[in-house]
Specification:
Helix content is 47%, strand content 17%. It has a six-stranded antiparallel β-sheet, with helices on both faces. A five-stranded mixed β-sheet has the order 8-10-11-13-12, with helices on one face. A hairpin with a 4-residue loop joins strand 10 and strand 11. Helix 4 packs antiparallel against helix 5 and helix 7 crosses helix 9. It is elongated, with a radius of gyration of 41 Å. The N terminus and C terminus are likely disordered.
């Protein structure tokens, strides 16, 4: 690191001036100097105000001319020349022309060990310095190098000001978003509470009380994580604001920016998880409308549903094969059937296979000759333990709790199949030998029953 003289704060230059003045007095010499190396010159940065001193501050001399200080900087060690006139190596050095025939100097180094210059004393008479003077010069050197550490820290802080201001603006913007997110979370909790009250009052939906309790439990994790992240960011922001008045290091600023980025990531993941849970819950709680009925070919409907999963299937690394041929005509609800197929495929891709191992999911269909068709979704994965087979369609049952599984996918399948499509669904498996889901549907769906007129509920179900 190399700084121009103008970059050194005046407070340090004044302190070093006092140091050189005192040093010249203690050593009883006319010249006490702090020298500084430049790309092609050496500069008198500080010169003692002592009688007979031929050097003035800001003087510069060319390098490679045999100066005492060049040897000190090259060797990074102490140089003691008692009398240059008696020393063949130093008799012609440029300082002799100024009658400075004795020299004692040591190098000054930046914290990164780059050479800054030297600190030295020169005299017009022969001097053999005792060890205590040498030790004193080393102590003065250490004191100035401690000042270098402070100067470097200040320079780093000044260089970080722009980045710090940017970080503060980003933090302010994030705080606004965070406040809005907290309001949205609070509103979501209020809507959930209202939904729970309405479901409990509704005779038809009374059985979903356990579902409401389950979704509340599931939401507690992402909401709790969001609130924890929010409170942590609020605390770190307050600490950061206090520390600004005392000065901030680059590492402290980077730590704060890292905390903000980590908090933002936690909030985004938690809020995304909460949004997906709420969407799944609404799908479970809403009564499935029996609309969109029409005639269609089963194979075409299934392949159409798979097209919407192309990217997800590709990303999973697994294969999905459809072996349903043409000619299976149905009069039912193709959109709801496509949703059932999509949920079963997603369930297989997410749960059936060990990480890193590619598997295959096969969809087939076979009419039974009695007005029904059996659609099978089979995988060659791990299989389902026998103890879990009877629970896979229960709401909130999942073996991946806290790992992305909400336990609602198969429950949605069960509800769509049994209520809208008027069929049945069952799961079979041998542990370690894959799983098979069989959906049995009528080729001709029954006509929907007309609902009796009833008074509207007291409030909307959100």
């Amino acid at each position: 690191m190399t700084l121009h003289a103008s970059a050194i704060p005046e407070t340090f230059l004044a302190k070093w001036q006092t140091t050189t003045d005192v040093m010249a007095g203690i050593f009883d010499v006319p010249a006490g100097l702090i020298m500084r190396v430049l790309p092609e010159q050496i500069e008198v940065l500080v010169s003692s105000h002592s009688e007979g001193n031929p050097y003035e501050a800001d003087e510069k001399a060319k390098l490679n001319t045999g100066l005492y200080c060049e040897t000190v900087m090259a060797t990074r060690g102490l140089l003691h020349v008692p009398d240059a006139l008696e020393d063949e190596d130093w008799r012609c050095n440029p300082d002799v022309a100024l009658n400075m025939i004795s020299y004692l100097g040591v190098p000054l180094l930046w914290p990164d060990q780059q050479v800054f210059g030297t600190i030295c004393v020169l005299d017009s008479k022969k001097r053999n310095y005792q060890q205590k003077y040498v030790e004193l010069l080393w102590e003065i050197k250490k004191s100035i190098e401690r000042d270098f550490v402070v100067i470097e820290q200040q320079e780093q802080l000044e260089a970080s000001n722009a980045e710090l201001r940017l970080a503060m603006r980003q933090q302010e913007a994030f705080s606004l978003k965070l406040a809005q997110s907290n309001q949205d979370l609070h509103a979501a909790l209020m809507r959930l509470t209202s939904l729970q009250d309405e479901l409990l009052r509704s005779e038809k939906m009374a059985a979903l009380g356990a579902v409401v309790a389950g979704i509340s439990h599931e939401l507690n994790t992402p909401i709790g994580n969001s609130l924890l992240a929010a409170s942590t960011l609020q605390s770190r922001t307050a600490e950061f604001a206090q520390e600004m008045g005392r000065g901030l290091t680059r590492s402290r600023m980077q730590e704060f920016v890292g905390t903000v980025e980590q908090g933002a990531a936690i909030l985004m993941r938690s809020l995304d998880q909460a949004a997906k849970l709420v969407a799944s819950f609404k799908q479970v709680a809403d009564e499935q409308a029996a609309d969109g009925r029409r005639r269609f070919d089963l194979g075409d409907a299934v392949r159409s549903a798979l097209q919407g999963l192309d990217q997800a299937i590709t990303d999973s690394g697994h294969r999905v094969l459809c072996s349903i041929g043409p000619g299976i005509e149905m009069d039912s609800y193709p959109d709801q059937l496509g949703q059932v197929v999509a949920q079963l495929i997603a369930n297989a891709v997410q749960h059936a296979f060990l990480p890193g191992l590619a598997g295959t999911v096969t969809i087939a269909a076979e009419p039974d000759g009695a007005g029904q068709v059996a659609i099978t979704v089979t995988d060659d994965g791990l299989g389902i333990p026998q103890d879990n087979l009877g629970r896979v369609f229960d709401p909130f049952f999942t073996t991946r709790m806290g790992k992305g599984g909400s336990g609602l996918g198969l429950h949605i399948v069960y509800k769509l199949v049994t209520t809208t499509l008027h069929g049945s669904v069952e799961a079979s498996s041998s542990d370690g030998a894959g799983a098979c889901f069989t959906v049995t549907l009528p080729l001709l769906a029954p006509a929907p029953m007309r609902k009796p007129d009833r008074a509207p509920p007291a409030g909307p179900i959100l």
